[in-house]
Design a protein that fits this description.
The protein is mainly alpha-helical. It contains 19 helices and no strands. The longest helix has 22 residues.
């Protein structure tokens, strides 16, 4: 099937035969498709749960275009949550989300998914959902809010169920629950809970989920940045030393760096220029979806007091150790690039100390 051009008559003929699909045409606009007969729907649902046939469904979604996306969604749309929980069908759902042809189809899928039950069990679905929201610029605010609430509720329930894990009482500890919950998705069993280094477990999928959330418009990724900045310097160092965690911190620093020019005069003049932000600049408020209030946000790489500046400050406190680590050095470089001039000098000084100490 992958060798055939799509769309084409030969491709459609093969797909129709494999899915036992009736020859029904899509509406002219291609926005929706009527579900086929029950026997075809059951056959397609059975395919998604089969270890071999599910790969065919994924390939069809990957190369079949919008027409076949709508057809398969018409057959599977009522069972998306069941697919998310299934050990095999969830991969077909991930491809369905990844291949969503527009904002409206993705919104329909989101409306049928509950995020709480997927935490810890099917993090790949959450990752693909976040990537789709970032790609289509829709649903990011709802996704971030639901994720944060589900993770905080889960942490509270876990703390209530055991006396060994009391909930954090300090402001940073409570704020960090969101970031810790995101990062731990997909962590190995032996790294689960708070048994990771410095009490932070990092999973491969959790890092990918964090990176996808940082691709959302700034106002929508702000809660994760705020939560990440609430981690202690020791916890941030542990995350940076992890092969997957380092990527999440690099993505956070890239978010800070990309926002800096839009917040009053760039990185070097500490937010006092004439940028578009509301902070100390003279401009008029943020522009575009997700820019929020401008200068009070992450462009605080220029010396402000927002979560971006707080994260960079805490990374600077462990800069020398970052510079000596095989993964941490990438975070060191990303933090350096996101910093204003005074902090760049501080990072360079810490890096020089690290080089000298390693040579001795």
């Amino acid at each position: 099937m992958l060798a055939l051009p799509a769309p084409s008559a030969a491709f459609d003929q093969l797909a129709l035969a494999a899915l036992r699909w009736p020859r029904c045409a899509l509406p002219a606009a291609g926005a929706a498709a009527a579900p086929p007969a029950d026997d075809a729907v059951l056959h397609v649902q059975d395919m998604t749960q089969d270890a071999v046939a599910s790969h065919y469904a994924q390939a069809l979604l990957r190369v079949g275009g919008a027409a076949w996306w709508h057809r398969l969604h018409a057959a599977l749309g009522g069972s998306l949550m069941a697919m998310a929980r299934h050990p095999t069908a969830n991969f077909v759902l991930q491809q369905l989300l990844e291949s969503a042809p527009g904002a409206e189809p993705l919104t329909r899928c989101m409306g049928q998914l509950e995020l709480g039950p997927l935490l810890g069990s099917r993090p790949g679905v959450l990752w693909k959902l976040a990537e789709a929201c970032a790609r289509l610029r829709t649903g990011g605010q709802k996704l971030t809010k639901q994720l944060r609430i589900a993770l905080e509720d889960g942490a509270s329930a876990a703390a209530a169920a055991t006396t060994a894990a009391a909930p954090p009482t300090d402001a940073d500890g409570r704020a960090a629950v969101f970031a810790r919950g995101v990062l731990r998705q997909g962590a190995r069993e032996e790294e689960g809970g708070d048994r990771g280094e410095a009490g932070v477990a990092v999973g491969a999928v959790g890092s990918k989920l964090a990176c996808a959330l940082f691709l959302l418009p700034r106002a929508q990724s702000e809660p994760l940045l705020t939560s990440l900045a609430a981690l202690s310097p020791a916890q941030l160092l542990a995350v940076a030393r992890h092969p997957h965690g380092s990527r999440a911190l690099e993505a956070a620093c890239a978010t800070i760096a990309s926002a800096a020019p839009a917040h009053g005069g760039g990185a070097g003049d500490k937010g006092k220029g004439k940028g578009k932000g509301k902070g100390k600049g003279k401009g008029k408020g943020g522009e575009g979806e997700g820019e929020g209030k401008g200068g009070g946000g992450a462009g605080d790489a220029g010396g402000g007091a927002g979560p971006g500046a707080k994260l960079l400050q805490r990374l600077w406190q462990v800069a020398a150790k970052l510079a000596r680590d095989r993964y941490g050095v990438h975070v060191f470089g990303a933090a350096f690039g996101a910093s204003d001039l005074p902090r760049k000098e501080a990072f360079l000084q810490a890096g020089s100390v690290a080089v000298v100490s390693s040579e001795q």
